[in-house]
Amino acid sequence: MSVVTNTTTIGAIEAPSRRNTELALLAFAVVIPVFAYLNVGLAIDGEVPPGMLGYGAGLALLAGVAHLVVRKWAPYADPLLLPLATLLNGMGLVLIWRLDQSPRLIALAKRSYGAFSPSAPNQMMYSAIGIAMFVAVLLLLKDHRTLQRYTYISMVVALVLLLLPLVPGLGADVFGAKIWIRVGGFSIQPGEFAKLVLAVFFSGYLMVKRDALALASRRFMGLYLPRGRDLGPILTIWAVSLLILVFENDLGTSLLFFGMFVIMLYVATERTSWVVMGLLMSAGGAVVVGSTASHVQSRVQAWLDPFECLKTAPEGTNMAYACDQMTQVLMSFGSGGILGTGLGQGNSDLIQFAANSDFIFATVGEELGLAGVMVFLLFYGLIIERGVRTALAARDPFGKLLAMGLSGAFALQVFVVAGGVMGLIPLTGMTMPFLAYGGSSVIANWALVGVLIRISDTARRPAPSPAPNPDAEMTQVVRP
Amino acid sequence: MNKPLRRVAIFCGLLILALLVRDNWLQYVRADELNAHPKNKRVTIERYSNERGNIIVDGKPITGSVDSGDEFYKYKRTYVDGPMWAPVTGYASQAFDASQIEKIEDGVLTGNDDRLFFDRTLAMFTGEKKKGGDVVTTLSGAAQKAAFKGLGNKTGAVVAIEPSTGKILALASTPSYDPASFAGYHNADAKAWQTLEKDKNKPKLNRALREIYPPGSVFKVVTAAAALENGAVKDINAQTDTPEGWKIPLSSREMVNHASGCANASLNRALEISCNSVFAKLGDDVGVEKMTEMAEKFGFNAEQFVPVRAVASVYDKNADRGGNALSSIGQFNTATTPLQMAMVTAAIANDGKLMKPYMIDELRAPNVDLIKKTEPEELSRPVSQKTAQQLQEMMENVVTNGTGGNADVRMDGVKVGGKTGTAQHGEKNAKRPYAWFISYAKTDQGSPVAVAVIVEDSAGTDREDISGGGLAAPIAKAVMKAVLKNRS
């Protein structure tokens, strides 16, 4: 017998699913934080931390469950997203645990609240809920296109979520920003979830209206200007963003939503004019609010020259507080230098309030140094890149818009938070995805990664094998 | 939709790039500036995060470090017999910086000194905690105790030097303060500091090194030295040509003597009963130039570093004849630190060789390795051996027959030489005079100790009793005895 050669020309060549790649990367994503945990324990107590095994096992379990679910229900999903999110989540846990050991923060908590409770166990629980959310998204959302059906429900839900913090008795004012609600002992940041729901609404809405928004226009000075009545949506979103800014004192959220909308509008219509309009409107809004809201003014002062502002601001005012916070954060970064002090050996706890949430990136800067910060930024960059790649690969416009909207929002959030703590832009009260302490943020971001994984699975899934050709029966290959 | 997608992707990439560039600027370009910023507590946190090295006297630490349990600055300085040693150690406070040895040798004490680089690196690898090195002083616990006790609640200062090496054996100043009382940075520390700052007795002033006093009659030994060196007097027992009531040049006033029998008194006799006329005339005979030269050889008109800075003592080189005559008996513009008078005494006791005074003997690494040892160093030779021995003979005569009887230790084989002084000051000399005493002890192996004592004021002492011999000499005697006993 001679060698049998396959002469079939049409057939499903199994596309590589890359699940094993994902598994190998996940191993790193678990081992690296475990070593970081060990590092913190050795630096602070000089001994192997007793919780290391439990921590490692917990992280491995979460990653394992997520991996198995992806393997079963989204086999063609992007292999990088899950390991990256796991690594960031794991490192976030280590950093929060490290700050839990700080005598200064413990003393501060006792002074302010009468008691100190460690944040790391809570964050571990939030991470577990986050993974559960991730699993739920993959199990319940078999096809992301089903979300299209809920376009207008999404809009209502998003508005409710955004307005919840303003409801008396429910909303809580935390250091000037009203972005929290308190339900039965838990603090929830509805804005984090609104980000997801809004992306669904924008995608569904723009998919339907994109032709009208793109084509009906007048040409003016090389730009295609939209008709007056087509300005409705962008004006509405702009107004809502300004309302959030004015009533909830939250620069970050408002910037994030408006930016996300402009990006999606641009992608949907391919019209640069929308970007120009968006920039002009946000600039206008920023000037108006910046010159009226004192909360924003002090943040801007603290951004322009924190050390100078610390000298001039009257003691005890919001401005002095904002400036002091900013100088502490900058000095934390500066003291890290190129290689950092090493985990557990820095003094980023001098930032005091919100050291493990809004300002957790300063701990990365001080203890892991320039090198560590760049690595983290590149991790975030990779997540965004995988998201955009998913959008490019998606075959349906809704999936494209949704993937782009989510990755765009993620990119804006990373930029606004990291840029804020590093003094590149005025500071806003948002959290670094996956790193910072906070249940809402972790859970919402795991859901976001779940949706991206679902879209990428659909996008990378090989085309179904062609229907059996009735002629195939007749033309048989005759083998010698 | 892919074209705008790619553009947005590039935009997102630019956002990340902007963050990367900003981070490089922050953590590389501005790192040093932010790290050393005065608002940055990290420097001080690091400074107090380890046990500070100790200052050692007679092999035992006179300082300590205690874990204060503070959340920012962990270790706080403690002191053994703080007020007694304060003029030596200075202070190291978390709120008010440090002074004297604590400041000068801060690098060694904190362990940050470049010379401790290898110890630090080694400790990093062996996992040991960083520790500071020790400063071993030349002081003698017994002598310091005698000096401090002798001064008691009087205001004054004592400096004792080992003449052959320049080692400082005692350095006391009263009223003193406890540097431990403001070692921290809390309200209590600030309060203690404020109280000391406001105290009109100036307890924080180191009178031994930082205050200059008119020396009065004790300066006459310098004038005697100048007279002998410049040939104005050939024989210490020969009569000088000095009338009673010698007229001060360029002035209508006469030099007042408090003792009788000063007319034509020999140098030896004049020192014994402290004749103003004889020494004023000798100073005038030698002239302001030669007088200044002699004073400067002894260390006047220059700051001394032991290594703590001592202010410069003054001999006015621009004085006219009258001023120079008054300067020669330790009045007019002449003013000296107690350290300076101890140096003069030590040089005479050491047969004319002035050794540079110092109080830090060794610097030691945390593992007791020697970093640096101070070797005795000759500063100058103000007088020849012969002149020095003549001066010794006269100073011993002062103790045996003259005003300094209170200083005689009465020990076998020990000769004591000294000179009293009662320096008037204030408008028309209205203020209580300063009581001075300088002395040395000498055995056949050379001189182990030279002392200068000043007592500024003593409440409850009648003005007539304020004399060097009465108030200051007993303190000098106690210090010399302590040193002599330690030797045998």
UniProtKB/TrEMBL annotation, chain A:
<feature type="transmembrane region" description="Helical">
    <location>
        <begin position="52"/>
        <end position="69"/>
    </location>
</feature>
<protein>
    <submittedName>
        <fullName>FtsW/RodA/SpoVE family cell cycle protein</fullName>
    </submittedName>
</protein>
<feature type="region of interest" description="Disordered">
    <location>
        <begin position="459"/>
        <end position="480"/>
    </location>
</feature>
<feature type="transmembrane region" description="Helical">
    <location>
        <begin position="23"/>
        <end position="40"/>
    </location>
</feature>
<keyword id="KW-1133">Transmembrane helix</keyword>
<feature type="transmembrane region" description="Helical">
    <location>
        <begin position="275"/>
        <end position="296"/>
    </location>
</feature>
<dbReference type="InterPro" id="IPR001182">
    <property type="entry name" value="FtsW/RodA"/>
</dbReference>
<feature type="transmembrane region" description="Helical">
    <location>
        <begin position="359"/>
        <end position="380"/>
    </location>
</feature>
<dbReference type="Pfam" id="PF01098">
    <property type="entry name" value="FTSW_RODA_SPOVE"/>
</dbReference>
<feature type="transmembrane region" description="Helical">
    <location>
        <begin position="434"/>
        <end position="453"/>
    </location>
</feature>
<feature type="transmembrane region" description="Helical">
    <location>
        <begin position="124"/>
        <end position="141"/>
    </location>
</feature>
<keyword id="KW-0472">Membrane</keyword>
<feature type="transmembrane region" description="Helical">
    <location>
        <begin position="153"/>
        <end position="181"/>
    </location>
</feature>
<feature type="transmembrane region" description="Helical">
    <location>
        <begin position="251"/>
        <end position="268"/>
    </location>
</feature>
<feature type="transmembrane region" description="Helical">
    <location>
        <begin position="81"/>
        <end position="99"/>
    </location>
</feature>
<keyword id="KW-0812">Transmembrane</keyword>
<feature type="transmembrane region" description="Helical">
    <location>
        <begin position="228"/>
        <end position="245"/>
    </location>
</feature>
<feature type="transmembrane region" description="Helical">
    <location>
        <begin position="401"/>
        <end position="428"/>
    </location>
</feature>
<keyword id="KW-0133">Cell shape</keyword>
<feature type="transmembrane region" description="Helical">
    <location>
        <begin position="193"/>
        <end position="208"/>
    </location>
</feature>
From TrEMBL, chain B:
<dbReference type="InterPro" id="IPR001460">
    <property type="entry name" value="PCN-bd_Tpept"/>
</dbReference>
<dbReference type="Pfam" id="PF21922">
    <property type="entry name" value="PBP_dimer_2"/>
</dbReference>
<feature type="domain" description="Penicillin binding protein A dimerisation">
    <location>
        <begin position="52"/>
        <end position="135"/>
    </location>
</feature>
<dbReference type="InterPro" id="IPR054120">
    <property type="entry name" value="PBPA_dimer"/>
</dbReference>
<protein>
    <submittedName>
        <fullName>Penicillin-binding transpeptidase domain-containing protein</fullName>
    </submittedName>
</protein>
<dbReference type="Pfam" id="PF00905">
    <property type="entry name" value="Transpeptidase"/>
</dbReference>
<dbReference type="InterPro" id="IPR012338">
    <property type="entry name" value="Beta-lactam/transpept-like"/>
</dbReference>
<feature type="domain" description="Penicillin-binding protein transpeptidase">
    <location>
        <begin position="156"/>
        <end position="481"/>
    </location>
</feature>
<dbReference type="InterPro" id="IPR050515">
    <property type="entry name" value="Beta-lactam/transpept"/>
</dbReference>
